[in-house]
Design brief:
alpha/beta, two-stranded antiparallel ribbon, globular
Length: 299
């Protein structure tokens, strides 16, 4: 405990208990303490992270799931339950940029009758995710975003979660050393404004989502307005969900159903007016925007 405190670990007492519980011998404990003292994330030292009540394996070099991402999962679970069909039909769930597979594993554990898929571009992440997602009967693919997914998923996905990197490139150096030095850059760096990967996911998502299906992406509070505009340009109906407790911002985009797509088509309102009075097309819902600030965090 004294060594951890001297190294600047804020929760030295809690970390000591975890290290003692994980170590099988005094020598192994000493080695684990040494790895922690030199800056390895605690999750990499003990080999797991707690996420929504699950013990998720986290291998060295793999992105560590953040507690704030539990908010994204909670919203996805709510939407997944609404989208559920009577058995034996299954809710199709996809976890892009899956890292350790924590989000997919949590969704698989919380939802009944799920057809679960995950993908990541990092080979180490894919190996780790396969262990975590297997319990829910899911499959994990290696590749860039949608590219490795089975073509048969096009137009079938009910819940698409994409925990994309969203730290602007010039601000990656401001992240804690644990993230900068021990997590893959591809899981942190979101490009010049932090939204490069979000744009790519949003542009392709409507072709993969089922009508009425949802895309959920975590971002920062200050990026939310631009992210919402990107979702809308891609043809998704955007909403913003915010958790002050978890310091989390999630953009939810819904693919319109057939009727909604017709209502949103160019020229539809003019044609409707010529037909005379009747029920108005239902406008796309847009969640209340959070106030802007300079706050942001790693994805």
């Amino acid at each position: 405990m004294a060594r951890l405190r001297a190294a600047g670990c804020v929760f030295a007492e809690d970390e000591t208990e975890l290290l003692i519980a994980a170590a099988r011998t005094p020598a192994e404990l000493a080695a684990m303490v040494e790895r922690r003292v030199v800056g390895l994330p605690l999750e990499h030292v003990v080999g797991w992270a707690e996420f929504r009540g699950l013990r998720v394996a986290v291998d060295p070099g793999v992105f560590v799931p953040r507690r704030r991402t539990e908010f994204l999962v909670g919203r996805a679970v709510d939407l997944g339950r609404r989208a559920a069909r009577p058995a034996p039909d299954r809710t199709v769930v996809v976890d892009l940029c899956c890292g350790s597979g924590a989000v997919g594993a949590a969704l698989g554990a919380a939802l009944d009758w799920v057809e679960l898929y995950a993908a990541d571009i990092e080979p180490a992440a894919v190996r780790c995710a396969r262990r975590n997602v297997a319990a829910a009967g899911g499959e994990v693919y290696e590749g860039d975003l949608f590219a490795p997914l089975p073509a048969g998923l096009r137009g079938r996905i009910d819940i698409l979660v994409a925990n994309v990197p969203y730290v602007p490139s010039e601000e990656v150096g401001l992240l804690p050393a644990e993230a900068r030095e021990h997590e893959p850059l591809v899981a942190l760096d979101g490009g010049a404004d932090g939204l490069d990967v979000l744009r790519r996911v949003t542009a392709a998502a409507p072709r993969w989502l089922a009508p009425g299906g949802h895309l959920l992406v975590e971002t920062s509070e200050r990026q939310a307005e631009r992210a919402v505009e990107t979702f809308a340009r891609g043809g998704l109906i955007p909403q913003v969900a915010v958790s002050d407790e978890l310091y989390a911002t999630v953009i939810i985009g819904t693919r319109p159903t057939g009727d909604e797509e017709r209502d949103r088509a160019p020229g539809h309102d003019e044609a409707h007016r010529k037909q005379g009075p009747g029920p108005r097309p239902r406008p796309g819902l847009r969640g209340a925007m959070p106030s802007t600030s300079t706050r942001h965090g790693s994805h």
